[in-house]
TrEMBL record:
<protein>
    <submittedName>
        <fullName>Putative aquaporin SIP2-1</fullName>
    </submittedName>
</protein>
<comment type="similarity">
    <text>Belongs to the MIP/aquaporin (TC 1.A.8) family.</text>
</comment>
<dbReference type="InterPro" id="IPR023271">
    <property type="entry name" value="Aquaporin-like"/>
</dbReference>
<feature type="transmembrane region" description="Helical">
    <location>
        <begin position="6"/>
        <end position="25"/>
    </location>
</feature>
<feature type="transmembrane region" description="Helical">
    <location>
        <begin position="199"/>
        <end position="220"/>
    </location>
</feature>
<dbReference type="GO" id="GO:0015267">
    <property type="term" value="F:channel activity"/>
</dbReference>
<dbReference type="Pfam" id="PF00230">
    <property type="entry name" value="MIP"/>
</dbReference>
<keyword id="KW-0472">Membrane</keyword>
<keyword id="KW-0812">Transmembrane</keyword>
<dbReference type="InterPro" id="IPR044226">
    <property type="entry name" value="SIP2-1-like"/>
</dbReference>
<keyword id="KW-0813">Transport</keyword>
<feature type="transmembrane region" description="Helical">
    <location>
        <begin position="126"/>
        <end position="144"/>
    </location>
</feature>
<keyword id="KW-1133">Transmembrane helix</keyword>
<dbReference type="InterPro" id="IPR000425">
    <property type="entry name" value="MIP"/>
</dbReference>
<feature type="transmembrane region" description="Helical">
    <location>
        <begin position="37"/>
        <end position="57"/>
    </location>
</feature>
<dbReference type="GO" id="GO:0016020">
    <property type="term" value="C:membrane"/>
</dbReference>
C-alpha cells in the first residue's frame, strides 16, 4: 500500500510540475512588464517560490517527486529492490504524469509553447545537460549529508542552485535537468524517440547522476564521516 501511494504521489506531483512551469510563464506575460530585467526578476522569484512549494509537497506526500534523477540518486545508494522499484515503477509513473499534464495544458491553454528544445549540436547538448545534472546532484547529495538543520535553509540553497544552473543552460538545451518533464513535451511534439532527445535528455543526465553519486561516495562522503567522527570524539 505504501508503494502504491508513492506512485500516486509521483504521478500527481509530476502532473503539477509541468503545469507550474507554464503558469509561471503565463502569469509573467499577464503582468505585461516592459522592462526585461524586471520581468526576469519576477520570473526568478516565482520559480524559487514554486520550488519551495514542491519541496513542501514532497514532504507532505512522504517522498512524492517529479524528477527521475532525484530518486535515481537515492535508489543507487539503497538496496536492489528499491532500485528496481525506482527504475521499473516510479520513473515510468513520473513520465506518464508529465505526459498527461502536457496533454491537459495543450487542450486547455493556447499558445503556451512547445517545451524545451535543443539549440546546439547533439554532443554539446549532451555535455551541457550532463554538466548541469552532475552539479545539481552533487549539491543535493551534499545538502542531504553535510548540512543539518532547517528545511527552509536547505530548500533555499537547492532552489537558488537549480535556478542558476537552469539560467546557464536555458539558451542551449533549456537547462532542464529533468528527463520526465522534457519527455512530456517531446511526446506531444512526436520527437520523443529521436536520437537527440534520448541522448541529450536521458542518457547524459543519467550518466551524470551515476558519476555524481560515485564521485560523492569516493571523495566527499569519507571527509564528511571523518569530520562527524572528530566532532563526536571532541564532544
Amino acid at each position: 500500500m505504501g508503494r502504491a501511494r508513492l506512485l500516486v504521489s509521483d504521478f500527481v506531483v509530476s502532473f503539477m510540475w509541468v503545469w507550474s512551469g507554464v503558469l509561471i510563464k503565463q502569469f509573467s506575460t499577464y503582468l505585461g512588464l516592459n522592462h526585461q530585467p524586471l520581468l526576469e526578476i519576477v520570473k526568478a522569484t516565482l520559480s524559487v517560490m514554486n520550488m519551495f512549494f514542491f519541496a513542501w509537497l514532497g514532504k507532505l506526500t512522504h517522498g512524492g517527486a517529479y524528477n527521475p534523477l532525484t530518486i535515481l540518486a537515492d535508489a543507487i545508494s539503497g538496496d536492489f529492490s528499491n532500485f528496481l522499484f525506482c527504475v521499473g515503477a516510479r520513473i515510468p509513473t513520473q513520465v506518464i504524469g508529465s505526459i498527461t499534464g502536457v496533454r491537459f495544458i495543450i487542450n486547455t491553454l493556447s499558445g503556451v509553447g512547445s517545451g524545451p528544445r535543443l539549440n546546439i549540436d547533439i554532443h554539446r547538448g549532451a555535455l551541457t545537460e550532463g554538466f548541469l545534472t552532475f552539479a545539481i546532484v552533487t549539491i543535493s547529495l551534499g545538502l542531504a549529508s553535510k548540512l543539518h538543520g532547517s528545511f527552509y535553509r536547505k530548500t533555499w540553497i537547492s532552489s537558488i542552485s537549480k535556478l542558476t544552473l537552469h539560467i546557464l543552460g536555458s539558451d542551449l538545451t533549456g537547462g532542464c535537468m529533468n528527463p520526465a518533464s522534457v519527455m512530456g513535451w517531446a511526446y506531444a511534439r512526436g520527437d520523443h524517440i529521436t536520437k537527440e532527445h534520448i541522448l541529450v535528455y536521458w542518457l547524459a543526465p543519467i550518466e551524470a547522476t551515476l558519476l555524481a553519486v560515485w564521485v560523492f561516495k569516493l571523495l566527499v562522503k569519507p571527509a564528511i564521516e571523518e569530520e562527524t567522527s572528530t566532532k563526536s570524539k571532541s564532544d
